[in-house]
Specification:
The protein has 61 residues and is α+β, with helices and mostly antiparallel strands. The chain is 15% helix and 31% strand. Bound molecules: zinc ion.
Length: 61
């Protein structure tokens, strides 16, 4: 039986994002394929762009 060398087999589909949930402040995880982020606490789903925009608005100290 042929074996495929799947480059994704060791990849976690969720990439930990360095952003907080816009609703509850929980950790957001980016789902790389769909460019969405999912909160691990409230399961809220946000588009990556939505999260980026929200973070850009905050002043950088
Ligand atoms: Zn949340």
């Amino acid at each position: 039986m042929a074996e495929f060398d799947n480059p994704y087999v060791d990849e976690d589909p969720f990439v930990r994002a360095h952003f907080d949930c816009l609703d509850c402040g929980g950790k957001l995880w980016e789902y790389a394929i769909q460019r969405q982020m999912v909160c691990e606490d409230c399961r809220g789903v946000f588009s990556s762009q939505q999260v980026f925009d929200a973070n850009i608005e905050q002043p950088a100290d």
